[in-house]
Write a structure and sequence with these properties.
It is a single chain. It is built from four helices and no strands. The protein has helices spanning 3-11, 24-47, 54-78, 82-100. The longest helix is centred in the middle third of the chain and has 25 residues, at 54-78. α1 (3-11) packs across α3 and α2 packs antiparallel against α3.
């Protein structure tokens, strides 16, 4: 699936107050979902001796999907595409990499 396709499909499921005029809602959702990812990672360390099981991998996959949904919603609120965000990030990372290897 392409970013453009994902963002379009995800947008059809975005039902929250003042959609496209409310950056706060998806930002707060993003932080909550990122916290859920972190909590699972913590439990891997605490309860599973650092071993990633198939079940935990599946739970992480689901939560990361929720993170992606909220990133897409944030992009919509800002009038950006996921493609634009990804391209900007690659440029930033390349500059950082070049600087750290100089």
């Amino acid at each position: 699936m392409r970013f453009e396709d994902y963002q379009k499909e995800a947008g059809t499921t975005a039902l929250y107050p003042n959609r496209l005029r409310n950056i706060e809602y998806p930002v707060l959702g993003l932080t909550g979902e990122a916290g859920e990812v972190a909590n699972i990672a913590k439990k891997i360390q605490r309860d599973f001796d650092g071993k990633l099981t198939d079940e935990l991998r599946g739970r992480l996959k689901e939560e990361l999907g929720d993170v992606l949904w909220y990133i897409s919603a944030c992009a919509d609120e800002l009038g950006l595409t996921l493609q634009e965000i990804a391209e900007c990030n690659i440029i930033k990372l390349a500059k950082r990499h070049k600087t750290s290897n100089a």
